[in-house]
Design a protein that fits this description.
The chain is α+β, with helices and mostly antiparallel strands. Among the domains are: about 40-70 and about 75-95 and about 115-305, tricorn interacting facor f3 domain (Immunoglobulin-like); about 335-470, Neutral Protease, domain 2, CATH 1.10.390. It is globular, with a radius of gyration of 30 Å.
Length: about 725
C-alpha cells in the first residue's frame, strides 16, 4: 500500500510529539551520559562569586540545537539549587518544570512538545562554594583573605553550572563574573570590559572562548597579584604568573621559564599557541591535584609553582619545569584537540607526558635525559605486572572508571608507547603524523583510531595494528633472546614472547603483542642496529653477522622486558660502557623484575649491581640503589642481613666516599642529586653506624639553624636521623 507523502509527514510528526510527551512523563534520569536529542551550540554564563561566602549565584543561557521534538531536556548538574528556567523557541517562551535527576543530572520539562530546531534555555540557580572539597567551585582562606578557584576535570563543571558536561560537546563560552571591586577576576580569555556596580561590586566580562569542553572552563577570583613574564612564541602570547597577595616574590622562576617552554612546544608542533593568553594561577593550600591545563588559565598548587629564591635546591625547580612542560603540552594535546570520551584519556595524558619530556630534554639536558624516559617505562611496566592491570583504552561504565583512568597506565604507559613507536617510525615521520593529527582535528575531538590513522598515512601501516595490540589489552611482554651462531654461518636470534607477571600471579589467557623491537649487535669494531616486528609467540631474526654481544632494547625505550638466554646477559655486564644510560637502566630494571618474578637467578641479577654502581650516569646509579633497597624490603632475612650490609658497602661505599656527606664547591647537579639516595641506602638498610652518626650531627645543626643543611639533603637526612635516633631527637623534629 502506498501512503501519500503528506500523510506520512504528519504521522511521523505526531509519533515524535507523542514520544516527547512520554519521555517527559517517564522522566527516568540518565545513568552516565546524556541522552541524544539535544546538543549545545553556545554557553553564556553569569556568576556572582564572593569568596568569603559559601554559596554563589549563577545564570546560564544555553543555545541548543534540538535534533527532534522534545518535552524534556536533560543536563548535567550537581548540588545546584535551580530557580527559574525558561525555554525560548520559535518565538515563544515556555516555562520549564525542574525534574530531579539524582547526583549528576537535572531535567527540564515543558507543558508541550518543543519542535526540532534552535532553542535557548535560560536558568537561574545557586551553587556551593566549598571550603573542603576542591572540586567545582571552591574557596580558600590565605593570609586572612578569601580566594575562589575552579577545578572541573573530569566531571565537575556540573557543580558550577547546568551544562552538557562531556568532552565531545565543545562550544564557545561567554563568561561574566560579578565580584568585589578590589578583587581580580581571571578566566580562560582576556577581559574585554569592566564596569562598576552597586554595593562595591564590578562586572568583569571576558572574551568569548573558542569551542571548549566544559571541563576546560576555568576561573579565579580574589586579591591576586600578577607577575608579568613577557610575550612568547610565534603568537606572541602574553604570559603572567597570578599569585595570592604576598607570594609574588616567589614567582620569579616560573616567570623565567614558562614562556620558553611554550615557545619550544610551538617549534615542535609548528602550530602557534592557539589561545589568546597564558595565565598561570597559584592555589595556596593543599589541593587534590598538582596542576590543571585550562587553556589561558593553567592552575597550579603552590607547592608546584612557587620557588623560594633563597632555596638553592634543584628539586623545586625540577618539579615546576616538569609540571609546566606537561601542562603546556596539553594546550595542544587535550585543549586544541580533545579526546572524544574518557576511554581515551591516554590521548591527553600520555601525549603530554611524552612531548614534555622531549622538550625538557632539549631545554635542560642535564636535568632531563633519556634515562628519565627509561625510568618512566619501568614504572609503567610495574603497574602492568598485575593480573588486575587494566588496558590503556578500556570501556567507561561509571564515573569511578573515569577517575581511576588518571593513572600510570594512561600517563607513563601511554608516553612509553609513544616513545617506542616514534623510535620505530623515525622522529621526523612520527612528528609529521602528530602534526597531521593535530591539524586535522583542531578545535574538535579525536579518538585513538584517528591518531593511528594519522600515523599510518606516514607510510607506516604496520604501526596501527602494533600500537593497537598495546592499547587494547593489558600487560607488558617479556621477549627472550637466544643467540645461535652455527659454524657454517646463518647467525640468528630466536625470539619468544610471553606476558610479564608478578611472582605467584595466576596466569590469565595468553597474550600476544606486535612488538616493534630495535636491537644493537656488536663484534669487535663492528656495530649495527637491526629491527624486528615480533607478532607471533615465536620468531627467528636473521643476523648480518655473529655478534659478541646483543642489546635487546636499543635506547631502553621499547615497552617490553628483555630476557637474555645463555651468556648474553653476562657478556653485556662485562662491558657496560657499550650501553647508553637508557639501556643500562632498562637492563637493571628488567633484571630486577625478572628476578622478582622467578625468571632470573639471584646471582645473575645481583651480579649486575657492582658493574653499574660506578656509572657516569646519575640515573643509572639511582636505579642500582633502588634495586638494592628493594631487596631489603622483600628478600633479606635476619640471618642474611650482615652479608647484605657488606654487599651494600662494597658496591656503593666508594661512590659515596668520593661524593662526601656534604656538598662540595663546584660540584655538578648530578652529584648533588645523587648524594641523598646513597646516604639513605648506606645509613639505612646498610646500617653504617658512622654514617648515621654523621647524618644525625648535621640534622641536629639543621634543627637549630634551618640554613645549616642544603635543602636537597633535608628529606633524606631527616629520615635517616629518625630511623637511627632516639626519643629526644624525635621530639625535637616534631617541634
Amino acid at each position: 500500500m502506498t501512503v501519500p507523502r503528506t500523510r506520512v509527514s504528519v504521522l511521523l510528526a505526531l509519533l515524535a510529539f507523542a514520544a516527547g510527551r512520554e519521555e517527559a512523563r517517564a522522566a527516568t534520569p540518565p545513568e552516565l551520559r546524556l541522552p541524544p536529542g539535544a546538543r549545545p551550540v553556545r554557553m553564556t554564563v553569569d556568576l556572582t562569586v564572593l569568596p568569603e561566602r559559601d554559596t554563589f549565584d549563577g545564570r546560564v543561557s544555553i543555545e541548543l540545537a534540538l535534533e527532534r521534538p522534545a518535552a524534556l531536556v536533560w543536563l548535567n548538574a550537581t548540588r545546584l539549587e535551580i530557580g527559574e528556567a525558561l525555554l525560548s523557541a520559535g518565538g515563544e517562551d515556555l516555562p520549564a518544570r525542574v525534574v530531579p535527576g539524582g547526583e549528576d543530572f537535572v531535567g527540564f520539562a515543558f507543558d508541550r512538545d518543543v519542535p526540532a530546531g534552535p532553542a535557548t534555555l535560560a536558568i537561574s540557580y545557586r551553587g556551593r562554594l566549598d571550603e573542603v572539597e576542591t572540586e567545582g567551585l571552591f574557596r580558600q582562606r590565605d593570609g586572612g583573605e578569601w580566594y575562589a578557584y575552579s577545578q572541573f576535570q573530569a566531571t565537575d563543571a556540573r557543580r558550577a553550572f547546568p551544562c552538557f558536561d562531556e568532552p565531545s560537546l565543545r562550544v564557545p563560552w561567554k563568561l561574566t563574573l560579578h565580584v568585589h571591586r578590589e578583587h581580580m577576576a581571571v578566566s580562560n580569555t582576556p577581559v574585554v570590559a569592566e564596569r562598576d556596580e552597586e554595593g562595591g561590586m564590578k562586572a568583569v566580562e571576558f572574551a568569548e572562548t573558542p569551542p571548549l569542553p566544559s571541563y576546560l572552563v576555568a576561573l579565579g577570583v580574589g586579591p591576586f597579584v600578577s607577575v608579568e613574564a613577557g610575550t612568547w612564541g610565534r603568537a606572541r602570547t602574553p604570559v603572567r604568573i597570578v599569585v595570592p597577595r604576598g607570594r609574588e616574590g616567589r614567582a620569579g622562576f616560573a616567570a623565567e621559564v614558562t614562556g620558553d617552554l611554550l615557545a619550544r612546544l610551538e617549534d615542535y608542533f609548528e602550530i602557534p599557541h592557539p589561545f589568546a593568553k597564558l595565565d598561570n594561577l597559584v592555589i595556596p593550600q593543599t589541593v587534590a591535584f598538582s596542576a590543571m591545563e585550562n587553556p589561558g588559565l593553567i592552575t597550579y598548587a603552590e607547592r608546584v609553582l612557587l620557588v623560594d629564591p633563597g632555596n638553592a635546591a634543584l628539586g623545586p625547580r625540577l618539579r615546576y619545569a616538569s609540571t609546566a612542560g606537561h601542562e603546556n603540552a596539553h594546550l595542544w594535546f587535550g585543549d586544541l584537540v580533545t579526546l572524544a570520551w574518557w576511554d581515551d584519556i591516554w590521548l591527553n595524558e600520555g601525549f603530554a607526558s611524552w612531548i614534555s619530556d622531549k622538550v625538557l630534554a632539549r631545554w635542560k639536558p642535564e636535568w632531563f635525559s633519556a634515562a628519565e624516559r627509561a625510568e618512566r617505562r619501568g614504572a609503567a611496566i610495574g603497574a602492568d605486572s598485575l593480573t588486575t592491570a587494566r588496558r590503556v583504552r578500556r570501556p567507561i561504565a561509571s564515573k569511578d572508571d573515569i577517575v581511576t583512568a588518571f593513572d600510570s597506565i594512561s600517563y607513563e604507559k601511554g608516553a612509553s608507547l609513544l616513545e617506542m613507536f616514534e623510535a620505530w617510525m623515525g622522529p621526523e615521520r612520527f612528528r609529521s603524523g602528530i602534526r597531521r593529527y593535530l591539524k586535522r582535528h583542531s578545535w574538535g575531538n579525536a579518538t585513538s583510531a584517528d591518531f593511528l590513522a594519522a600515523l599510518a598515512e606516514e607510510g607506516a601501516p604496520e604501526v596501527s595494528r602494533a600500537f593497537a595490540s598495546f592499547l587494547d589489552q593489558p600487560g607488558a611482554p617479556v621477549v627472550s633472546l637466544e643467540l645461535r651462531c652455527p659454524e657454517g654461518g646463518g647467525a640468528r636470534l630466536e625470539l619468544a614472547q610471553h606476558r610479564y607477571l608478578s611472582l605467584g600471579a595466576p596466569a590469565p589467557a595468553p597474550s600476544r603483542w606486535a612488538i616493534p623491537m630495535r636491537l644493537r649487535l656488536g663484534a669487535g669494531t663492528r656495530v649495527e642496529s637491526v629491527r624486528a616486528l615480533l607478532e607471533g609467540e615465536r620468531d627467528t631474526l636473521e643476523l648480518p653477522f655473529c655478534p659478541d654481544w646483543v642489546v635487546g632494547n636499543e635506547e631502553g625505550i621499547g615497552y617490553y622486558l628483555t630476557a637474555y638466554r645463555g651468556d648474553l646477559l653476562a657478556r653485556l655486564a662485562e662491558h657496560p660502557v657499550r650501553l647508553d644510560a637508557g639501556e643500562q637502566i632498562a637492563l637493571l630494571e628488567d633484571a630486577a623484575r625478572l628476578f622478582a618474578a622467578g625468571e632470573l637467578p639471584p646471582d645473575a641479577a645481583l651480579g649486575l649491581l657492582p658493574r653499574f654502581a660506578d656509572s657516569a650516569h646519575r640515573r643509572v646509579v639511582e636505579s642500582a640503589v633502588e634495586i638494592a633497597r628493594s631487596l631489603d624490603s622483600h628478600l633479606v632475612t635476619e640471618a642474611a642481613r650482615p652479608h647484605y650490609r657488606r654487599f651494600l658497602a662494597s658496591v656503593f661505599g666508594a661512590r659515596l666516599r668520593a661524593l662526601g656527606v656534604d656538598p662540595r664547591p663546584g660540584e655538578s647537579d648530578d652529584e648533588a642529586l645523587l648524594r641523598p639516595g646513597l646516604v639513605a641506602l648506606l645509613a639505612g638498610p646498610g646500617e653504617d653506624a658512622g654514617l648515621a652518626a654523621a647524618v644525625r650531627e648535621r640534622v641536629e645543626r639543621w634543627l637549630a639553624n634551618r640554613t645549616a643543611l642544603a635543602p636537597d639533603l633535608v628529606p633524606a637526612y631527616l629520615k635517616v636521623a629518625a630511623r637511627n635516633g632516639d626519643a629526644a631527637l624525635f621530639d625535637r623534629m616534631l617541634d
